[in-house]
Amino acid sequence: MCPSLDLKTRIIFCQRQGPQLIDISSFFKHTLLPQNCLLCGDMAHDQALCHHCLDHLPWHDTLACPVCALPNPAGELCGSCLTHPPAFDATVALLDFEFPVNALLRRYKYAGFLPVAELMGRLLADKLIDRPRPDLVIPMPLHPTRLRERGFNQAVEIARVVCTQMGLSLALQASTRARPTPPQAGLVLTERKKNLRGAFTCQMDLSGQRVALMDDVMTTGTSLDELARCVKKAGAAQVECWVAARTLRD
Ligand SMILES: [Zn+2]
Ligand SMILES: [Zn+2]
């Protein structure tokens, strides 16, 4: 690819390549062979991203509220978490949901570009290395109808990599989505909350357990809040959210 193109142009060019289906051949190519950078297409050797793209990712490493991970200058508990505490106790976010992360995650979720799960899972495991370990990891469940349409659960595939890397238990059957919920995008916060009320059920006794909830993106945190509420009702003592990306503005 022409090296004179700027990064954004090259990424858009790369995204226009290939079918909009789950790309199994690409998955194996990126898993087993020396590969090109998932973002710009340049040689990345045995890595998913070249050094340039890795260095320029929007890492979520600014001071932020420890509960919801939204940035604030002192890294203190934010006003929203103080006045309306969510059911989860903490959030760890790997990246900001900005370009090119938003484009990469959309390609993963809606076009089945599975190498992104490996990339996000490995980077997240690196970030979590010094953090106290939970007893188990519960990925955000998809309703069976949505799972059939998409072919995979984007949170599960990232969680698989994180758990393998860190030697953690992945609890795939712990929680299910009790009813299909319309997409959250475009809804205001109160509508999101109403949309999700009672959406999850928890089948495990989680008494005294420390649980990490895994999702690809935290937007308002409403889904994770509802899932955390359900997990705590099942007895969990401590719940934190692990997300590949955090939306900074809704
Ligand atoms: Zn690159
Ligand atoms: Zn907060």
Describe this structure in words.
With 250 residues, this protein is α/β, with parallel strands linked by helices. It has a single domain, classed as 3-Layer(aba) Sandwich (Rossmann fold). The chain is built from 10 helices and 6 strands; from the N terminus they run ααααβααβααβαββαβ. It has helices at residues 7-15, 24-32, 51-55, 79-83, 101-111, 115-127, 144-150, 154-166, 189-196, 222-233; strands at 90-96, 136-139, 175-177, 200-202, 210-218, 238-246. The strands form 2 sheets. The protein has a 4-stranded parallel β-sheet with strand order 1-6-5-2, sandwiched between helices. Strands 3-4 form a two-stranded antiparallel ribbon. Helix 10 links the parallel strand 5 (210-218) and strand 6 (238-246). Helix 6 (115-127) packs across helix 8 (154-166). The longest helix is centred in the middle third of the chain and has 13 residues, at 115-127. The two termini are 35 Å apart. One zinc ion binds next to helix 3.
Structure summarized in a few sentences:
It is built from ten helices and six strands, in the order H-H-H-H-E-H-H-E-H-H-E-H-E-E-H-E. The protein has 250 residues and is of the alpha/beta class. The strands form two sheets. It has a four-stranded parallel beta sheet with strand order 1-6-5-2, sandwiched between helices. The protein has a two-stranded antiparallel sheet with strand order 3-4.
